[in-house]
Amino acid sequence: MKLLCFSAGDQNHLGLKLTDGVLDLTDAGYPRDLRSTIENFEAAKKEIDAISRHNTLPLLDEESLSYLPPASPVSKILCVGQNYKAHVEEMHKSLALNYPPEPVLFSKFNNALTGHRSAVKLSANAHCYDYEAELVIIMGKGGMDIAGDKAKDYIFGYTCGNDLSAREAQKKTSQWLIGKSLPGFAPVGPWVVTADEIDPCNLDISCRRGEELVQSSNTSRMIFDVYTIVSYASKYIRLEPGDLIFTGTPAGVIFGKEKDQQNWLTAGEEVTVTIENIGSLTIKLV
Question: Given 3.40.1110.10, 3.40.50.1970, 3.90.850.10, 1.20.1000.10, which CATH number is that of 71-285?
């Protein structure tokens, strides 16, 4: 099941992505928003299936929609750094390189969230803008001390994310927050694919800067898989339904290149993250 959020007039609507278009669940009488769907998924799934089977409304063209992040409201956004070996290697370039023994966690603020096809404004207060294609987890159940072999049961689904970064701000201190939480610097979408329909441990993931392919990998190359990440984070942080977890980016970021080859993102560019069996998330920088 692929669920998405979009604006219609001045209201937020929930949609179901189908092969031939998008069913507006809100207009079809579905009473839940995404958060309540996540929290009561077994009942919600039956309602959505019934609405889909008996729908008489015309399907919407997905290209005509004004997308919202498929993750609202969100309690918190967690992120994992240095989670692909090739990315660790490009960032450090050291003979004494050590891969992280445990997931490296940081966060973004919730007002950094934005959706598919959004315009992200680049601040004059920061520079050295970079992309990071990432698989994003949407939590389905809350808890602490979640066992690794039970983590799958706590995940609602997955979406595409771009961990946009202002590198010089990120590196001002050992805390990465100010380089990661500018407005719009957590684009996610275009929809969430429920966990029962996807294997998160074997998905092709890529990023295009305009037409140029700049990142290409597979989630099987993660140092810590999604279940390990959820289990580890829950040792220290109470996870809640709807929480987002960015799971790390593969090699190919601008910051990993030699200094004379670091051609930073600028206004006017489009960046697209594509993940197998999910879709493509595009944003435009302004």
Answer: 3.90.850.10
Distances (CA, A) of 38 to 73, 155, 182: 11, 10, 27
Task: Check: CB of residue 16 under 8 Å from CB of residue 3.
Answer: yes
Instruction: Look up residue 95 and give its amino acid.
Output: L
Q: Spell out the per-residue pLDDT of the chain, length 286, in tens.
A: 999 999 998 899 999 999 999 999 999 999 999 999 999 999 999 999 999 999 999 999 999 999 999 986 788 999 999 999 888 888 876 555 778 899 999 999 999 999 999 999 999 998 899 999 999 999 999 999 999 999 999 999 999 999 999 998 887 877 888 889 899 999 999 999 999 999 999 999 999 999 999 999 999 999 999 999 999 999 999 999 999 999 999 999 999 999 999 999 999 999 999 999 999 999 999 9
End-to-end CA distance of the chain: 33
Q: Kindly report, as residue ranges, where domains of CATH 3.90.850.10 are found in the chain.
A: 71-285
C-alpha torsion sign, points 217, 221, 225, 229: negative
DSSP 3-state of 53: helix
Say if CB 182 and CB 112 are below 8 A apart: yes
